[in-house]
Amino acid sequence: MIMKNILKSLTGFILLLLITSCSKEYLDPVPKTSLSELSVFDNSDRILAQVNGIYDMMKDGQYLGGRYFIYNDIRAENFKNLLNNGVTGKSTFEHTLIGSTNEVQNLWGAVYAAVNAINIFHDGLKERWDAGQLEGIISQAEYNQYVSEALSLRALCYFHLLQLYAKPYNMDNGANPGLPLRLTAQKSSADNDLARSTVAEVYTQILKDLNDAEPLAIIDHGSAELNTTRIHRNTIIALKTRVLLHMSNWSGVITEAQKIVSASAPFRATTGVHFELQASIADVFASPYTTTESIFSMPFTSTDQPGTQNGLGAYYNPNPTGNNDYSVNKDDAWSVYNNTGFNASDARRLMFIDNVDGETYFAKFPTGPNPTDWAPVIRYSEVLLNYAEAIVRGGNAVTQQAVDLLNAVRGRSFPAGIYALANFANVQAFIDAILLERNIEFMGEGIRNMDIMRTLSIIPGKFTVSAILPSQPEYIWPIPTSELNANKLMTGN
User: Fold this and answer.
1) Which of 345, 366, 435, 442 is the most exposed place for a label (fewest CB within 10 A)?
2) First vs last Cα of the chain: how many Å apart?
3) What pLDDT, in 10s, does the model give residues 133-150?
4) Where does 275-399 show beta strands of DSSP type E?
């Protein structure tokens, strides 16, 4: 990792210490005092402040504050670039990225900064706990929870990096170059040089972190706000269904999903935080953003925002709530807007708004020009669709349970469009239906590109931008030039 990123990580760690510990202040942080590294574990409030600070780094505008989701959507076919603004993803949209492009370097830096902050906290906490220095300061349960959060967030960071900077797991079973796996605190440039682990090795570490975190995690924070913005046991299980899906580990997806999805409709988690779908999808994307469908989200308020040109609504909304950067692609017949399976009476169509400029915009994230929409990292509807897909792919047969899971999501927004088992002539017909449903349901949430890549599909063309084949170098992002210059063991894509 380059020196700039190291310094950013360390600076970020100091900033962690400026963030106060209670839930309200996490959502609206107010700096109080700077603390030395020697004193940050002196009391429970300071330890919790560090935990909250790690979450604050995760929601950096260059990462989960907005841009990670945006890049994964505008790579695909459902949006139209209007402003040709290099600052807001033009090169990502056109697949013309090089190693020195801002988004390539900034996202990498933001995610690795979060990783290093997590490692600094985790290593410091463990060292002091093992030495008995935290006795009377935090309990065993608190220690376990903080470790579970650190491990889970690190796993999420590495999973996200893989989706852009490495070839999919399903390409050669993860044998391709992955990422430098930084698992301990880096406090100087002495540890810059680190070779890439394979994609499979990174996935192994991701699952190890999540599996280690699960038994340590709290069952329920006792607050809808905290259950949405901080890791608990069922959050970890939900994330594992996504990771295992990307590895085509169908039995693994099923095993995890069964922990938090009841055997029949209405589907819900029966232990821990009781995840379930909301009656209306509109409720999920409206204040207070803490429904039981919202498994994990990045929170924002009027005084704690993702930053200029980072917020989700800023990209997709027209003026005055957005910047008119991207409209909905209605020009290409293969866009989701024009898909005949996306019925005109589907409630998710209400998220499209026609504007006086003749374009149609996407208003899933409607607040602005100072956005306060929470950024959804994972929702329960995804878990249900992950489960349904795994049942059918793993058993090579369409079952009534899989159809019911798909219908739970589809029928919520389009009751007249629910499927019968007889509607699917074969397994591929069901897979086509579920991928369409994911495309509709998660539009704007950064999942479209991930689905394209895990299925080794072609990234569709749009307008004058050509389609990208899995064999082309543009299928994944280049490694940042700055990383290659500083890490002598790093190799490019």
Assistant:
1) 345
2) 16
3) 999 999 999 999 999 999
4) 294-298, 326-328, 352-354, 360-362, 375-379
